[in-house]
Every structure is written in C-alpha cells, then in structure tokens.
Amino acid sequence: MTNQPCLRRVLASAALICAFSSPLTVVPAQAQFGGIVYDPSNYAQNVLTAARTLEQINNQIRMLQNQANALINQARNLEGLPLTVLEPLQAQIRQTQQLLNEAQRIAYDVRSVEAAFDAQYRTAALAASQQAMIEGAESRWQNSVAGFEDALKVQAGAVGNIEGSRNAVSNLVSASQSATGALQAAQAGNQLLAVQAGQLADLIATLAAMGRVQSLEAAEHAATRAQAREQLRRFLASRSASASVSE
Known about the structure:
Layout: H1 4-20, E1 31-33, E2 36-38, H2 40-77, H3 86-101, H4 110-120, H5 130-177, H6 182-246
Antiparallel strand pairs: 1-2
Helix pairs in contact: 1-2, 3-5, 3-6, 5-6
C-alpha cells in the first residue's frame, strides 16, 4: 500500500520521541515554549493512536475494495445473454406444424380418421354395388398417394431446418464460450436444449408422416383383399345362377 512508508515514518518519529522522553534523558517531562506546554509522552501517545487509526482506515479501504469486486462479479453473473434463437426456432416448428395441418384427404384428426375408415376401409363398403367398389378402391389409392406426398413434404421441411439448427448451435456455443457470467452460460445451455427440442419435433413429425403412409397403405391392401374376395364370391354366385338357369 502507498501508506506504508508514511506509517513507518510516523512510527520512527514516535520511537525517537519516546527515546528522548525516557528517564535517561535530561529533558524535563514538560517544557514551555512561548507559553505552550509541551508533553513528549502525550505527543508520542497521540502519534501512536493516529498510526493505529490510519491502519484501521487502510483495512476498511481494502474491505470496501473487496466488496466492490464482489458486487462487480455478481453483476456479471446477472447479465443476460444478448443472443437468442427462440424466434427462428419457433418459426421452424410452426412451419413443420403447418405441413402436418396441410395433410391431404385424411387429416391428422381422430374423428377424420374414423369417418374415412368407416366409409372406405371397413367391411360395410363390401355391400356396395360393383361400381361403388371400383370408386372406393380408387379413393383408397388416392389416399395412399396423398399420404406419400405429405410425407415427402414433411421430410423436406425437416431437412431444410437442419441448416438453421446448425447455425443456431454454432452461435450458441460461441456465446457460451464467451459468456461473462453464470446467467449467460445457463441461458446459452437452455437455448441449446430448445434447439434439440426443435430437432426432436421435426423427427416426431417425420415419423408421424411415415407412419401415416404405412398405415394407409396397409389399410388399402387389407380393403383391397376383402373387396377382391367379395367380388370373387359375387362372380362365382352369378356363374352358379347362370348354370342353374341354363339347365
């Protein structure tokens, strides 16, 4: 500290004064100079008291400096991260959701699925006429084709979001490495988790679209086999009736 040399000089002066005021000296304990009474021992005591007071002040200054540094560190820990990728990430998720909402013919809705299967895939359609069966088979084939198209759209959207996710991860990692406080590092970590959640949403959407295609195709095959059996039964029945009439 810059006050240490001054303190040493004060202590040295006090020591000299005490030496001159000891019993070995011939200087009287008190002397008058121009009417002012001078007491060396009292003066030395005052000097020592001032030195101790100065040391206490220096300790208080150091303590205040430490407190100021602690407050500065706390302020850094409370600084928010200036980078955010939430809006682009939400836009990507909305785009994927929009692709799912644009599903053709049979939407991602429980009631829509039930109505379509009751009308086109269940055995009740087997009681229809031959022309209605042909039209039903055509409608089921169109459902499968539309499902394949929807799945390809969702997959293309998920692939298109990869570049945005890559940029977001790169920016967040850089921001995390240069974070000035704990809050910035935590916010960068949270946004990285949000990016992973967006990627998981794309994956779920892709799996849902592919599962929809597979389900429609399997339902179409099952309905086609059932319809083929019914058509064969009708054909054989008509042949039997024709043979009976001819006899």
